């Protein structure tokens, strides 16, 4: 159905109709006459339909009220009176995306599905949630999702609990999150951007039920809403539903959600402390951030230009401003960022791995380097390459499995929220043309002069490490709560105990069958029975197996090379992981690293390097470790892409000792900043590395790698020749023809070109010997408590069920859903206050449970240990079991882009998962009953009784539970 301008349909007036060639879509802007709601509909033939409703939310304090509202609206509503309809949707929907997101000035509720009935159900639950939530009157919602005083008994310690409270404690455990907050405080003292929309843990307990409900009443009205629809749908029925069920119940009202434009408060230079562990070294752990407000960057052309400039100046391996800062010794890890999606966008430089005395040198150096560039002109080759990268990404539109409409819906808010054209952010051809001309006419130099050199609106903020600061803060908080408790009467204390117990009772009480019946769901008959078939042809080129995956790729050819890593020693494996961080950023015999970077940008869509392992389906001791080149480019440039792959793999040299040292030190500084944030990944691999050779190999790229890179960084300036020689040796050992398997994803026509061009790389590789043997990691149960200055934990427990005689079964995929959105959701998140929990069950028998941003430690381990008892008595209705099956399918049936299709084909290839085996797993999944889940209890019990535990988190919490651990260790220093 086509809509016409000036048409009125189901209460909506069609204000504008426009074709958007970049999206191959017809776009319609509408408004709902009675309620004032705005609506944008992007019509095309994409069956992955997207709906979102967003609100402009502009908090005036850092209590986190927008974030807590986002969580809480999904905790029951008028039509769906459950405790958490969101969870029931996750269980029983074929959604391809289902979440909600809080930004500094907006809150978004997007959903997506390829099934029309499911899509309508998702819209219904979300619209009812945002307009008619139970949170307005039910104080227990704020207590659970936001914060509350908690007392188990009158004589126990008074604490704060709440999901968002603990989530934000985890966020603020990362120095870069603290830096972002300080920068925004400095730049926007008078507007909503100067407060923390996610919530500062110190401020969250100031949020009252009254102000919580008032915030919803003010901002969650259709007149302050932005509805977005995308894809192939019956728009007549969709608009009729939105109008009839929801918008027709409201009338236009004035909503003051204006953000307010900050006038320049003057240039700011500030220094703040951040906490590190007691006894931890402070050298080279200072962070600096120089951030400019780019007031005109709501113009999509200016925004795109700054993204190009950021890459050219600070992100490319050849980035001159980054090089100048490193050469001056101001920091080890330099990065840049352009942040749009706010009214006054930001351009910033981050200098990590630094010291406090470097602060004064940063601004003068940046100004000198940029002034020289403006005067002499930016490198046109770098600009052209960066613009090519940008254009390639826009045209490819590969969002790694996420629906295109989701990304477009978020992107259009970059202008729509500020009362500008929502399509401006989606239409890029004009901007590309302007920037192409701008390479030669001084456009980019003009931007630097105007927005950086002549701009007084900036903040230079430094974060200096202070040992013990976190512990002192935690003690001050404990003292404050103790003093508050001491001031309470017996009646007041009893009331807190009663409220705590009432909340725990609510959390532990299942929803009634009647309430569960209100959530619409599909049936098993609605589910796709057949496993996703991926065509793959195998042939041999010069002795190398080449796998071809046919797909329509818009003129792009994807080339993935997998080099077998059998036959390596333990030390060589560490150097292979290091090689993956360095290769492509070092000189070759023919080009400097800067030239290589420029050629990659000019002629490809990117080349990435990684190390991974594919486990044998039935044996974690047998696995395929690989070094992977992941490359893509327009087929017309495939010969240049292959030339680059050949040069990088065969002719990279490590003789530039300064460059080698810079990259090693940058890698180490990056780990220092990111280690705690990736704590769940670290502990999940680590705990399995006690029992699983394949996971020991993976851990060699996680915590073990952090330990390795710390050692290497400490001696790189003196031992560069030795380290470079080892990198060269391992590179020559692994990049051989006998170790190679190639995969190409392309159209049939482009495959013809690939068959002619790709052999040039194969033929250039030395033959080598077929790698044999796997490294012996000497497995043992370490049970480590990894102590940090963080204020939350990542708690992991796992092992291998095949070692106890149990096989893998497709019902384990359903158990994954049951645990993540049932048992562990209740125990770890709802009752424990953690942000969430993960589970993993692998074909090879490895399994692990892990909590995320968890205020607890021992109680989470106890929840894992009690799981088998829960499973032994597991019993739900057929309808609820069907929901778990549907929710499982929605997680595994991800729509495949060409690059994802190729990756999935190779995963099946290396693991020996034939289509027949995949179909058997799917059949088992689809047929799973409650009895099948009960039958899994013995294998879970057996693994939990192996007692393999690994935790990363607060030093105090870990020492308090030291009996759980055989080893207490600190992060590398």
TrEMBL record:
Residues 463-712 form the Peptidase M16C associated domain. Transmembrane segments: none annotated. GO terms for molecular function: metal ion binding; metalloendopeptidase activity. GO terms for biological process: protein processing. InterPro entries: Metalloenz_LuxS/M16, Pept_M16_N, Peptidase_M16_C, Peptidase_M16C_assoc, PreP_C. This is Peptidase M16C associated. It comes from Megasphaera elsdenii DSM 20460.
């Amino acid at each position: 159905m086509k809509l016409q301008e000036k048409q009125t349909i189901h209460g909506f007036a069609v204000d504008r109709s426009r074709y958007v060639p970049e999206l191959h879509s017809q776009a319609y802007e509408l408004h709902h006459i009675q309620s004032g709601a705005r609506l944008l509909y992007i019509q095309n033939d994409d069956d992955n339909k997207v709906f979102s409703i967003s609100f402009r939310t502009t908090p005036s304090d850092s209590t986190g009220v927008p974030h807590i509202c986002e969580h809480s609206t999904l905790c029951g509503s008028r039509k769906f009176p459950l405790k958490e309809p969101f969870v029931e949707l996750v269980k029983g929907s074929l959604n391809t995306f289902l979440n909600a997101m809080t930004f500094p000035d907006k809150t978004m509720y997007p959903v997506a599905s390829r099934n029309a009935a499911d899509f309508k159900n998702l819209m219904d639950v979300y619209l009812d949630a945002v307009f008619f939530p139970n949170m307005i009157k039910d104080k227990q919602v704020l207590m659970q999702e936001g914060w509350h005083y908690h007392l188990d008994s009158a004589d126990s310690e008074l604490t704060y609990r709440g999901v968002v409270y603990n989530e934000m404690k985890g966020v603020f455990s990362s120095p870069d999150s603290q830096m972002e907050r300080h920068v925004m405080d400095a730049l926007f003292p008078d507007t909503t951007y100067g407060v923390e929309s996610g919530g500062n843990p110190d401020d969250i307990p100031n949020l009252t039920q009254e102000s919580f409900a008032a915030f919803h009443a003010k901002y969650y009205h259709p007149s302050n809403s932005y509805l977005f629809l995308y894809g192939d749908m019956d728009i007549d029925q969709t608009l009729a539903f939105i109008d009839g069920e929801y918008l027709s119940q409201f009338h236009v009202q004035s909503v003051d959600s204006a953000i307010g434009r900050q006038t320049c408060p003057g240039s700011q230079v500030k220094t703040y402390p951040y906490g590190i562990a007691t006894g931890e070294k402070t050298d080279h752990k200072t962070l600096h951030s120089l951030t400019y407000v780019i007031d005109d960057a709501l113009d999509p052309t200016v925004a795109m230009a700054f993204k190009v400039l950021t890459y050219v100046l600070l992100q490319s391996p050849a980035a001159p401003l980054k090089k100048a800062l490193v050469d001056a010794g101001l920091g080890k890890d330099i990065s840049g960022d352009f942040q749009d999606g706010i009214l006054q966008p930001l351009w910033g430089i981050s200098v990590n791995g630094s010291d406090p005395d470097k602060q004064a040198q940063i601004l003068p150096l940046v100004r000198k380097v940029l002034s020289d560039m403006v005067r002499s002109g930016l490198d046109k080759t770098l600009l052209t390459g960066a613009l090519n990268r940008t254009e390639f990404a826009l045209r490819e539109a590969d969002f790694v499995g996420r629906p295109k409409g989701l990304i477009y819906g978020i992107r259009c808010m970059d202008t729509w929220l500020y009362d500008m054209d929502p399509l401006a952010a989606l239409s890029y051809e004009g901007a590309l043309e302007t920037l192409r001309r701008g390479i030669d006419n001084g456009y980019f130099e003009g931007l630097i002069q105007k927005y950086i050199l002549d701009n007084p609106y900036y903040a230079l903020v430094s974060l200096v490490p202070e040992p013990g600061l976190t512990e002192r803060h935690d003690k001050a908080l404990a003292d404050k709560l103790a003093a508050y408790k001491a001031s309470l009467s017996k009646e007041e204390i009893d009331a807190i105990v009663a409220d705590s117990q009432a909340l725990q009772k609510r959390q532990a009480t299942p929803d009634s069958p009647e309430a569960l019946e209100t959530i619409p769901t599909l049936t098993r008959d609605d589910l796709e029975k057949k496993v996703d078939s991926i065509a793959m042809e195998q042939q041999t080129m010069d002795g190398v197996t080449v796998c071809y995956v046919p797909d329509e790729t818009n003129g792009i050819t994807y080339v993935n090379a997998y080099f077998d890593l059998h036959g390596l020693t333990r030390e060589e494996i560490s150097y292979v992981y290091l090689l993956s961080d360095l290769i492509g950023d070092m000189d070759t015999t023919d080009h400097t690293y800067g030239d290589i970077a420029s050629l990659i940008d000019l002629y490809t869509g990117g080349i990435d390097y990684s190390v991974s392992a594919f486990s044998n389906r039935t044996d974690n001791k047998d696995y395929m470790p690989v070094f992977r080149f992941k490359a893509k480019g327009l087929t017309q440039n495939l010969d240049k892409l292959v030339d680059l792959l050949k040069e990088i793999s065969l002719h990279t040299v490590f003789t530039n000792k300064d460059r080698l040292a810079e990259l090693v030190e940058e890698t180490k500084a990056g780990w220092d900043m990111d280690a705690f944030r990736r704590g769940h990944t670290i502990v999940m691999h680590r705990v399995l590395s006690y029992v699983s050779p394949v996971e020991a190999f993976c851990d060699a790229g996680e915590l073990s790698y952090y330990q390795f890179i710390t050692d290497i960084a400490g001696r790189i300036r003196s031992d560069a020749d030795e380290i470079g020689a080892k990198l060269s040796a391992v590179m020559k050992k692994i990049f051989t023809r006998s170790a190679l398997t190639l995969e190409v994803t392309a159209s049939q026509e482009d495959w013809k070109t690939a068959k002619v061009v790709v052999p040039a790389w194969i033929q250039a590789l030395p033959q080598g010997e077929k790698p044999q043997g796997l490294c012996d990691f000497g497995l043992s149960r370490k049970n480590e408590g990894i102590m940090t200055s963080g204020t939350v934990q990542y708690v992991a427990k796992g092992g291998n069920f095949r070692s106890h005689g149990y096989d893998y079964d497709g019902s384990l995929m359903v158990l994954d859903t049951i645990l993540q959105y049932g048992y562990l959701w209740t125990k770890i998140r709802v009752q424990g206050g953690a942000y969430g929990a993960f589970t993993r069950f692998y074909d090879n028998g490895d399994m692990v449970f892990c909590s995320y941003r968890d205020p607890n430690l021992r109680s989470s381990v106890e929840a894992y240990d009690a799981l088998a008892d829960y499973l032994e008595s597991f019993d739900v209705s057929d309808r609820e079991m069907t929901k778990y099956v549907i929710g499982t399918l929605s997680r595994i049936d991800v729509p495949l882009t060409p690059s994802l299709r190729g990756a999935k084909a190779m995963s099946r290839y290396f693991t020996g998962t034939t289509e027949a085996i995949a179909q058997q797993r799917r059949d088992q999944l689809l047929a799973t009953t409650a009895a099948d889940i009960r039958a899994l209890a013995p294998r879970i019990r057996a693994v939990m009784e192996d007692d393999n535990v690994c935790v990363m988190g607060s030093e105090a919490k870990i020492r308090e539970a030291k009996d759980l651990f055989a080893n207490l260790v600190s992060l590398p220093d």
